[in-house]
């Protein structure tokens, strides 16, 4: 109904009317394009169609006679109004493009401009949640099916496809997601243009852009919970050279193991580490091993520190949050990368997994299998049992049977027990849903490959079986407990700091460009 109404309004004869009507119509076009870019092509086609005067051709006595408006005295004014409309439409779509273009000749303000743009994109991103985007796409599919079924009863006719209908295959059904998709495509094109000059990779320009984007990442992206797409700007940039990916991993590692930073940021860094290692096809196996070595070494040191204190340790997530997110990052990485490790060299791969001493991690007093997301816990258990690396099911069954309370400290310092999963983690490089800009991400991205040779994976919470074509086995696993620590800008509270958190060995992943 809305689509039909919009296209009806676009066909209204607005040219040649009073100035008040023209002004109102131009305002309508500006509001329409700025709010829902899905109608951009339709608006442009409508305006351009008025560049040719309307002609009426009749046939008298076998001779075509053309009744032309070429001499209409209103034509110059109508053309002026058409150009006003084009300038108005293009102004909204080219705003980000032109801001980025300014950075080419005034590089000193590039960081500020990137911060401004990415801040606006983040607002769009968090207002177009993964669930809402998927629901919008599903509703469109259902609507299209219903339309196709209703047309089956009609006789065959050639479809009259209007030139101002948007292309369904590349347009997002969710209007905010459509706008975000357009702007992400502009930003990614800018990134590539900066890093590649005449097709050749430019090291110094790339370094400078990476530093600027990393600063914006620390300030805006890392503290933002539930963003789905904006963080892929760094994912895309890091795909250009292995050294960039290693530099990003090294940066995340330094945040994670820094006890002076708020725990909420350290947990976010662990989430980025695990998700980046699991999903980025361009990260070589040697780098994955190096990252796992750092993570597992830090985890074992943390366990040592808890064992040496002589006190019984409970699952206090507000105190041990970085530890649990680090364990989850290790489990998640192994789930996605174990095949590559074993296919390269089965014997060497098994020896490496055994050298991680994962049995000590899962059996320690902190009990990470109790806190990590159930989907990750169960898949990790299935994989490690198949290759006889570690046996987790006894612990999982005991956790399920005992329903151990998990302690988290309230703002007032009191302890609150809960039987819900308190590890409010998200995986920032979950599947990319935007269609046009997603074409750049697709060849770089490791989709979830169902492990048919392992035991059947337990059904997801609240579901009977799994969805068709579901990429991510984590679907629906985000905990919803009230009061759980979230990665939001308001979460910088002193009670999130972990006084007993450890530092790390001074290892570094970063190599020179």
Automatic annotation (TrEMBL):
GO terms for biological process: transcription initiation at RNA polymerase I promoter. Residues 498-513 have a biased composition (Low complexity). GO terms for cellular component: nucleus. InterPro entries: RNA_pol_I_trans_ini_fac_RRN3. Residues 456-475, 482-513 are annotated as: Disordered. It holds the Pfam family RRN3. Residues 488-497 have a biased composition (Polar residues). Transmembrane segments: none annotated. GO terms for molecular function: RNA polymerase I core binding; RNA polymerase I general transcription initiation factor activity. PANTHER family: RNA POLYMERASE I-SPECIFIC TRANSCRIPTION INITIATION FACTOR RRN3-RELATED, TRANSCRIPTION INITIATION FACTOR IA RRN3. Belongs to the RRN3 family. This is RRN3 homolog, RNA polymerase I transcription factor. It comes from Oreochromis niloticus. The lineage of its organism: Eukaryota, Metazoa, Chordata, Craniata, Vertebrata. The gene is RRN3.
